[in-house]
Amino acid sequence: MIKIFIADDHAIVRKGLKQIISETPDMIVSEEADNGLEALDKISENNYDVILLDISMPGKNGLEILRLVKRKNPKLPVLMLSVHPEEQYAVRSLRAGASGYLTKESAPDELIAAIRKISKGGKFVNASLAEKLISELEIYVERPSHETLSDREYQVMCMSALGKTLKEIAQELSLSIQTVSTYRTRILEKMNMNSIAEVIRYAVKHGLVE
């Protein structure tokens, strides 16, 4: 029996999802929540096989909850549900750790297929989303991390890679130390790195500094 948790702030949506799932013998909705904080509490306290998570909810939105859930339980399958078009949130959701993404306009049999697939450790996307993901992946592969930086961020990255301190960079660029610190934080986020030491290694490896 696949135990499912539903988090959606619309009662009518939760009722509809439960109705669809109730018609499937090997699935059951164990519990539900109508806001982000309640969802986090229940997911932390109980064991579920699959989470159905709405992107737009009060308290904490679906993407925030997704990141927190995956941080604590990376293997827990999460299917994102949204009224938003796929291109707006699908790729962002999947990169954040979601096992699948469906719009609320999807057919009931597609929902059941998605739940069944991700409960077994798979990923679920429909055909149109798969094409978008391939395009996104090609862009991602072809584009080095440092090319996602703005001109100023790139400048701060190179100066940091040369071993310059926050104070030295601030003085050379006529910026406040706080502003330079903010740039460094953005650089780490955009390049998906945890420390300036990683940035230095990256810059040396790619010949960005001498």
Structure description:
- The chain is an alpha/beta fold and 210 residues long.
- It has 2 domains: 138 residues, Response regulator (Rossmann fold), CATH 3.40.50; 61 residues, Arc Repressor Mutant, subunit A, CATH 1.10.10.
- The chain is built from 10 helices and 5 strands; from the N terminus they run βαβαβαβαβαααααα.
- Strands 2-1-3-4-5 form a 5-stranded parallel β-sheet, with helices on both faces.
- α2 packs parallel to α3, α7 packs across α9 and α8 crosses α9.
- The radius of gyration is 21 Å and the shape is elongated.
- The chain starts with a strand and ends in a 5-residue tail after the last helix.
- The mean pLDDT is 88.
CATH topology of the largest domain: Rossmann fold
**Total E-strand runs:** 5
CATH class of the largest domain: Alpha Beta
Which percent band covers the strand fraction?
5-15%
Order of SSEs: EHEHEHEHEHHHHHH
* Principal-axis shape: elongated
- Can you give the mean pLDDT? 88
CATH superfamily of the largest domain: Response regulator
For this structure, the quaternary state is single chain
Low-pLDDT residue spans: none
* Total separate domains: 2
Which sheet architecture does the biggest sheet show? Answer: 5 strands, parallel
**What is the strand arrangement across the widest sheet?**
2-1-3-4-5
Instruction: Tell me the CATH architecture of the largest domain.
Output: 3-Layer(aba) Sandwich
Q: Give the CA-CA distance, first to last residue.
A: 59 Å
Quickly give the structural class. Answer: alpha/beta
* Number of helices, counting only DSSP H or I runs of 4 residues or more: 10
Helix content: 40-55%
Radius of gyration: 21 Å
